[in-house]
Amino acid sequence: MTGPITAFPDLLSETYTSEMGRGSFHRHRSTGLEARFAVPEFADPLPRPRVCDALAKAVACHRITLLTAPSGYGKTTAVAEWTRTCGHPVAWLSLNRYDTDPAAISEGIAAALRRLAVTMARDDILDALAVIDAAEVGALHEAVGTAVDVVGEPIVLVVDDLQRSGAAANTSVLGALLEQGPAGLRLLLIGHDPHQLPVSSQILAGDATRLDSSALLFTAAEIQSAAGLAARSATEVDSMLNRTGGWAAAVRVALLASGQTGAAAGHPTRAAAPDDLLLDVIADEVLPGLPPELAAFLLDVTTVSELDGVLAAGISGRSDALALLEECRRRGLFLDRFGTDGAAQYRWHDVFASRCRKLVALRDPEHSRALHLRAAELLTTRQPLHAIDEALLGGDPRRATEILVDSWILLLAGRAEESPERVLTRIPEPYASRDDVRTITACAIDLAGRRAEAQALFTSRATRTPRPESSERTLFTDACARLFLCDDRAELIEALGVAHDNLSYARSLGAARYAAAQLLLGRAHFMLRYEMHDGIALLTSAETLGNDAGEATIARRAAGLLSFCSAWVGDHGASREILARIQSSDEYSDSWSTQVGAPELAAEGWIAYWEGDFAAARTAFTKTIDAHAVAVGISSIARQYLVLIAALDGDATERRNAYSLVRQMPDHEVRGVPWELYRVVALAKLAEADGDDDRAGRLIRGVRVDWREIPASATVAVDLIRRHVGRHAAAAMVKQLAPLPLGDHIRASLLVTSALIHRADGDYPAAHEVLERALTVATAGKIAKPFLDTDPALADLLAEHARWGTSHAAFIAALKPPTRVLNDLSDRENQILGYLRTTMTLAEIAAEVGLSINTVKTHTRTLYRKLSVGNRRDAITAVARRR
């Protein structure tokens, strides 16, 4: 579909995201923020053909058009009117008060373009944008260029309320597009400050142009046309022009008043400032012309600029609030609606609403404060930061602080579009110095990426540790803060226990906050890899409660963590179900992802690794790092497993590159995780793959630690110990790990190591008995990795086991050795090689693979020639000895 985009009617209830690489769409419940991507619809907009012509000329002749003027000049209205007849596809982004971060602005632009692609039903555009990480400005800039080229015709990107972004716009992808953008992309930027963006050079080069408030002022002819005053005198029109100064907001109000009262003529010219003028027009002309109950309702519900029927009813006390909102729209009272009647969101024009609030405050200060406090109570659950602002406007900083303390877990866990740190700066003294407020502030600073500053603030509190008799809220707040801010594992585990003991406090705050609390605790279990089944229970509940409470972000984050935790404990089936349910995401640029990363991508890599699909594991783990490389937890796990894959399945170049991945991992304990152990295991495995067995032995021998904290890495370590330290040391380590509640991947790995130890001891019956148990476990869980090591002893044991007798011959036959071992073999030869590990005859193999016996013989002879062997046993041994 091409042509002007007039609305995104479904986006208020659903969000569409591209499923990477496939172009299909996944829907999930939204939070109402999708209105920012829709071209606004205004009730009875004043026609501005002169402005539309100016916009059309500017966009046609220039790549960049800046439309700048103070509030109330009708910038957005005029541009919205122009988009409906411009003949170009239009992507729209309205910035909000939280768009002061370059990554947020970049993601908003990417999302606006994606939504345009959805509206146009263009999968090719979505594909071009599907892998964007908004934090990588260069990659996003290139992807936008690709997407625009794919469209094949000029498109317009409108960015409204640019002034909200401050200096951040220059360092976002918008700044890059200003400097050098695709010829097919027309930027139409709406804001207050004509000098906010550095475009002087583009203007001199003819690449950009500015339209200012003078282009937006109403003329007498436009007022006459808009008001239908052709039969009235020029004096009446001039009077209205003089009273309003041509200011669109005032013209609109004056026209409304004139139409209702018929008293437009005869008013003296006033020299008052526009702010006072509009206040006077509202007070003297608009409100008296309305039914008294509608006027009272309007003044009450303009307390907040954005609302729905429920919020309007709560603030006004009117059960018919929704009908009255629609009446306001019908009368053209500066109210826009987004979405359908059942889920409609309303937004007052800021200039109009702010003057109404000022009017209420002037007429009845006590009522004004009461309205703000009523709004604070109603918004506490839905929009806690807004509720804090309302409580402060209502003159109750104590209530604002209480809302903060009771809502911080929700803010930190679920509201990626809001910044808790920003509102904390508005909490006045003495409340700002309270221990709990300083604690919450420290967590917000940590989430923003300034960990050292956050830890210093946390330790500077007057009371370092709450007393045992402290309230549940105090104990829970302190414990959760420690889960964010501490690095010592023992202290983190202790804090996790305290948080569990006081979780009933969070439950008392309602479903949304309880879901957020469970997410935060589940996140702690995940990051520590501690008592993971408890973490899974918490995350499962958080996802369910989050969905029930309408907290889609909390539910989505819980599901992402749950997918990895399930895979980590070996429940690959459950992890796959979760991954299929949540699909993938391209939103890894927020502060949450800075600490957590992309757990669902890591889950995909983890499953593929343990199932022996190293190519798929490489892809998923690489995406995990690319999604958010600065995240310590998940990204470092991905790096370690890419190193292990390189050691097992990579060539010399890949192994050399793997050393840089190790250097990117922390070399000390961070957030309770002993990353130095992960590094040692990775380095020892690389040394072994490079043939430096002495170094591998020194590295692994030097570790003195309880390996039970990292059981998956312990399976690699125990095999390194068996080969390079001694089988008795390995046996002791297996004995230490065996009692743990282990997943199938860990159990199968330990059983294989035990079987090899028995074989080295000469106890062949025990070796085969234990190996059969390992195969039973692995077959049930589709775990191939423990049997794919290039150790010749393992290959011999598997070959012997087929002759010994096994119930898992098909599983053994399907094992595919590492790719680098079999580069010279064809797919069919690889398949037949697998069957050669079994006791099946060539005739039986031929029947199994659907070939003639002669064809199988031919493939077998070719296979033997490539491996330089003469029989099947030597072929298996030769493959095992290739490194």
Keywords:
883 residues, mainly alpha, Rossmann fold, Arc Repressor Mutant, subunit A, 4 domains, five-stranded parallel β-sheet, three-stranded antiparallel β-sheet, 12 strands, elongated, disordered N terminus
**Helix-residue proportion:** 55-70%
Question: Architecture of the largest domain, CATH level 2?
Answer: 3-Layer(aba) Sandwich
Uncertain spans, ≥5 residues at pLDDT below 50? 1-32, 260-274
Give the count of structural domains: 4
Number of strands: 12
Task: Tally the helices.
Answer: 46
- The computed structural class is mainly alpha
Sheet having the most strands? 5 strands, parallel
Q: From the alpha-carbon coordinates, what is the Rg to the nearest angstrom?
A: 33 Å
CATH homologous superfamily annotation of the largest domain: P-loop containing nucleotide triphosphate hydrolases
Spatial strand order of the main sheet: 4-5-6-3-7
Which geometry do the CA atoms define? Answer: elongated
N-to-C span: 55 Å
CATH first level of the largest domain: which class?
Answer: Alpha Beta
Indicate the proportion of strand residues.
5-15%
Give the overall pLDDT as a whole number: 82
CATH topology type of the largest domain: Rossmann fold
